[in-house]
Write a structure and sequence with these properties.
about 20% helix, Cytidine Deaminase, domain 2, globular, alpha/beta, 11 strands, binds zinc ion
Length: about 180
């Protein structure tokens, strides 16, 4: 780590492969709990939602996931999840109204018993709606009880690790 880097919080727990040349992801434990509980609500159809938080450039850059927003209007079928235009416009209206300080930093959806990967359609969504280098995707398989993050790395979307922040911690910005 460069001497000028903001140190990773001591209580942040690295999970999986964290690439030095990608934007590190910090995920609050209570958000992870919310996402996993939501993902288990339907084991036959895909569910999805949005990850809210911020992209910060203090000394080093990082993305912080502070909230989860279930996309209840998404049209769900057995093996695909469609974010309609209504989903998008409602999302932005709701987020702007309720969480004016938060940005949409990524999206989440489930793959019931299908495993952890991004399908061609998932890649399409990432490339068209989450194209910023700090915008991430999260896939949860609620049947196999696994999840994975994906992020941009050198123009590609790759699976990656993250830092888990313990539940008691407030936003990184105030630390
Ligand atoms: Zn998918």
């Amino acid at each position: 780590m460069e001497p000028t880097s903001k140190p990773v919080p001591l209580d942040a727990k690295p999970i999986g492969s964290i690439y030095a040349d990608s934007v590190p992801i910090f995920l609050h434990e209570q958000v992870l709990d919310e996402v996993l509980a939501y993902s288990e609500q339907d084991l036959r159809r895909e569910l999805g939602g949005f990850l809210l938080g911020g992209y910060h450039r203090d000394v080093r850059t990082y993305v912080e996931i502070r909230r989860f927003w279930p996309a209840v209007d998404a049209t769900s079928r057995a093996a695909s999840l469609t974010f309609t235009h209504d989903t998008w416009s409602k999302l932005h209206r709701d987020v702007e109204r309720q969480f004016p300080d938060e940005m949409v930093v990524g999206w989440q959806h489930t793959h019931p018993n299908m495993g952890l990967f991004l399908s061609g359609y998932d890649l399409f969504i990432q490339q068209h709606f989450f194209r910023q280098p700090w915008q991430v995707a999260m896939v949860v398989d609620p049947c196999r009880r696994e999840f994975e993050f994906f992020q941009w790395r050198g123009g590609e979307i790759v699976d990656c690790g993250f830092y888990l922040l313990p539940a008691a911690r407030s936003s990184l910005r105030s630390s």
